[in-house]
Specification:
The chain is an alpha+beta fold and 343 residues long. It is built from 10 helices and 8 strands. The N and C termini lie far apart (165 Å).
Length: 343
């Protein structure tokens, strides 16, 4: 063993190295490694410290963002509360205005009522169903006198002529008005439900005959006072103008309905409406072919406007008596032509 150590020492001396120096070098290397290790550990600590710092800053940023978000949420809540409060105030103001309107005296509301009245449309109730507007005006014959009305001759009885030329006093009303025992397009009894007694009896017979033949007819509008006609006519003028209204609506005092001898009739097939379409239905054709048997004529027949002054009305029947109705139908005449008077 001693020999091995001696040989190793000898080898070192021959190489020019001192064994103590070698140990010093080893010690130095160990210290260097220790220093490097410490330095590495310090750097690692620094990095960890930096990471911790970054985490703290990140946490602070997140907390700040949360605070900002919370603040915005609070502002939105405040805004929502404000909007809700404004809506509530608006609702309260609306209620106050409505209460004020209800408390307003009737005299202060007259202006609004007048506005509503000025924009009223023609009466479309069951009392007077709205007539169909004419699609194309027809020329009238020169004997139409629109400058002044002549008095209708009531002494003619069932043959009295009432048209644009011959008129009745605005307050005229027959004394023998009755309600015919026929089916109506409405329930109850109205002014328009009446008709003069002789005409009412004949209309009852006509309706009964139609029913036996499977034809359903409904009465719509009979007697009409001069005042009622005034309301209707003025409404039609307001809607369509005077020229158009004169083609299908009589002026006050110039309506056959006021005589109590005329009646508007219709059928369920056309909704009981006063429409030209009735003339092309089974019911309308039955009326045209059979009315004369009971003393009625279709007063304003198809193509007769230039001879009557009014558009085609297949629903408007007029009582003149069986003999006169038969002759007028067979001759293709109007009541004016039969009575040799103008319109």
């Amino acid at each position: 063993m001693k020999k091995i150590v001696t040989v190793s020492t000898l080898a070192l001396l021959l190489a020019g190295c001192n064994p103590g120096d070698q140990q010093a070098d080893d010690t130095t290397k160990t210290e260097q490694k220790s220093d490097e290790t410490k330095q590495s550990n310090d750097e690692t600590k620094k990095e960890d410290t930096a990471k911790d710092t970054n985490k703290e800053e990140t946490n602070k940023t997140d907390e700040t963002a949360k605070d900002d978000t919370s603040e915005e949420a609070k502002q939105e809540d405040n805004s929502s509360d404000s909007a809700t409060q404004e809506d509530q105030e608006s609702s309260d103001e609306t209620k106050k205005e409505e209460e004020q309107k209800e408390d307003t005296p009737a005299s202060e509301n007259k202006t609004e009522d007048k506005k509503d009245e000025s924009t009223d449309k023609p009466d479309s109730s069951s009392q007077d169903p709205e007539q169909e507007k004419p699609s194309k005006p027809e020329d009238e014959t020169p004997d139409v006198d629109k400058s002044a009305d002549a008095k209708a001759d009531l002494s003619l009885g069932n043959l009295v002529v009432v048209n644009k030329k011959y008129g009745l006093p605005i307050d005229y009303k027959p004394s023998d008005l009755v309600v015919p025992d026929v089916s109506f397009s409405y329930s109850g009894v109205l002014e328009q439900s009446y008709m003069r007694a002789p005409a009412a009896k004949q209309m009852e017979k006509m309706f009964a005959a139609a029913k036996k033949e499977g034809v359903t007819l409904n009465a719509v509008s009979g007697f009409r006072s001069g005042e009622r006609q005034k309301v209707l006519y003025n409404n039609y003028v307001a809607r369509d103008g005077k020229a158009a209204a004169d083609q299908y609506s009589a002026r006050p005092g110039n309506s056959e309905h006021q005589t109590g001898l005329a009646f508007d009739i219709s059928a369920p097939s056309v909704g009981n409406g006063l429409t030209a379409a009735l003339g092309d239905t089974k019911e309308g054709k039955w009326i045209a072919n059979n009315a004369a048997k009971y003393g009625f004529i279709v007063r304003y027949d198809r193509g007769f406007q230039s001879r009557t002054g009014y558009t085609y009305e297949p629903w408007h029947i007029r009582y003149v008596g069986v003999d006169a109705a038969t002759q007028i139908k067979n001759n293709g005449q109007t009541l004016e032509e039969y009575m040799k008077v103008g319109h």
